[in-house]
Design a protein that fits this description.
Length: 473
């Protein structure tokens, strides 16, 4: 069932056409005057417009021109009386989808209407696909058979059967998005799009327009009407990342879509219906945000109908080994590189490490291994160097001093690469693309500075402790 707008100044034509279309199960609204229809069509209330060409006030061509100039791309079929084919051609040039000569048979118009509607549907499907295209880049498999992971798989299967909102919590990099995708894939909505939006990445107004869309001129820079995620994901799933970062006024609007299934585009008073399943993620304790009045309690309860908590990687025991094997194999295959062998010691180090960045950090390490290890074996020496520099860069935040920012950045980079190369200066200089003598001079200068500084303060420069590497040597 589609929503069709009929515009014709002749009452007889309006009525008979409306009746034909209603018989085909469409919702029809007829206008005598194109000017009265403009606002409603621009708001996106119709899937198709059937307009007469010759009308006393605003004719079909100016109607179409107005629609297009206001960024509205609803398909239009022009109806022309015999003899005005030249104008019909002009209308086609302006972007009419089709035209039909009057008088016409009911069957003929039915066919053309179906074609235009089909075209419109394909177009919006295409927009949704484009919006989710980046996700197709590399297929992701969920790996792990530890107890927590088995529990997560069971929860995914249960939740997928329902339509309720899901809240996925867990530290950064624990696989929240992957779980959301699995839920969508196992749900009834799998044939429809799944779209994502990170609530932390956009400020209030922009976020609202990304969610709900906007009308042309709704704010500075809104030079086109745009659909939001709730329209683009119609029939599908919407993943709202870092939901805790959403501003309070917008939380109220989100609550309304979740409760009533209703929303408005920014700058429009037309209420639209949403058919979207929402999955939200958070790496903060939302309950605490509620206590601190940063997050609406009612929204929290609404989101938390089906909670899934993802434990950090360090609590998943033997999954670490499984994940290492999986990533090394997968990445090597994609990069066309040889398979890497991992020594027993290296495995142990990896299992003892705390993985503050969780699975993403582990995946990055595997990526680095595939690229940088050339002799076919990932040893504990190499792994230790990497993990130490990772722990150090987490524990000593980069300090950029005014007037010496570039130098501070350079120093951090050099120290990191040096750690990756286990202190080997020749290799470090080569990787960095600098002379080994220059490198030596810089290191000497920084060492002397550090010594002078610690002498002044009467203390040693803090050294990064390595709790996760205890016993690693
Ligand atoms: N169980 C798993 N098996 C295989 N790969 C996984 C698993 N869990 C996560 N990953 C991979 O780890 C990376 C991080 O996962 P994801 O993006 O889902 O985490 P996240 O919790 O959404 O992170 P953030 O909080 O930073 O958004 C992704 O590349 C994902 O494919
Ligand atoms: Mg994520």
């Amino acid at each position: 069932m589609s929503r069709i707008c009929v515009v014709d100044d002749q009452p007889l034509m309006r009525d008979s056409l409306s009746e034909t279309l209603r018989r085909d199960d469409h919702t029809v609204e007829a206008f005598e005057n194109a000017a009265d229809a403009v606002e409603r069509v621009v708001c996106g209330e119709f899937d198709l417009v059937l307009s007469d060409l010759k009308m006393p006030k605003m004719d079909g061509v100016s109607f179409l021109r107005t629609l297009r100039s206001r960024g509205c791309d609803t398909p239009v079929i022009m109806m022309t009386a015999f003899g005005s084919v030249a104008t019909a051609v002009e209308a086609m040039k302006l972007g009419a989808f089709d035209y039909i000569g009057k008088p016409f048979e009911a069957d003929a118009i039915t066919v053309q209407v179906e074609r235009a509607l089909q075209h419109g549907r394909l177009k919006s499907e295409n927009e949704a696909l484009k919006a989710s295209l980046h996700d197709l880049a590399r297929p992701r498999t969920m790996v792990g058979d530890s107890q927590p992971m088995l529990q997560i798989r069971r929860q995914i299967a249960q939740v997928a059967r329902s339509e309720a909102t899901v809240l996925i919590s867990g530290e950064s990099g624990t696989g929240k998005e992957l779980v959301a995708r699995a839920i969508h894939a196992q749900s009834r909505r799998t044939d429809r799009p799944m779209l994502c939006l990170n609530c932390a990445a956009l400020s209030g107004n922009l976020l609202e327009s990304e969610l709900f869309g906007h009308e042309r001129g709704a704010f500075t820079g809104a030079d086109r009407q745009r659909k939001g995620r709730f329209e683009l994901a119609d029939g599908g799933t919407l993943l709202l990342d870092e939901i805790s970062e959403m501003a309070l006024p917008l939380q109220a609007k989100l609550l309304r879509v979740l409760q009533e299934g209703e929303f408005e585009r920014v700058g429009s008073s037309t209420t639209r219906r949403a058919n979207v399943r929402v999955i939200a993620t958070t790496n903060r304790d939302l309950e605490q945000s509620v206590t601190k009045k940063r997050f609406r309690g009612d929204l929290y309860y609404r989101l938390n109908v089906l909670p899934i908590h993802l434990p950090p990687l360090r609590r998943r025991g033997r999954d670490i080994r499984t994940l290492v094997d999986h990533f090394l194999k997968d990445i090597a295959a994609h990069a066309g590189r040889r398979h890497l062998n991992v020594t027993g010691d290296a495995y142990r180090l990896l299992e003892e490490y705390a993985w503050p960045g969780n699975i993403r950090e582990l995946e990055n390490l595997c990526q680095r291994a595939v690229v940088m290890v050339n002799d076919g074996s990932l040893t504990s020496e190499v792994v230790r160097g990497w993990l130490q520099s990772a722990a150090a860069s987490l524990l000593t935040p980069l300090q950029l001093r005014p007037g010496r920012m570039l130098e501070d950045m350079e120093r951090r980079l050099i120290e990191d690469v040096l750690a990756q190369n286990n202190g080997h200066r020749q290799r470090t200089a080569k990787t960095l693309g600098m002379g080994v003598r220059t490198l030596g001079m810089k290191l000497k200068k920084w060492r002397e500075e550090a010594e002078a500084e610690s002498g002044r303060a009467g203390v040693m420069r803090p050294h990064a402790p390595e709790p996760a590497l205890a016993g690693a040597g």
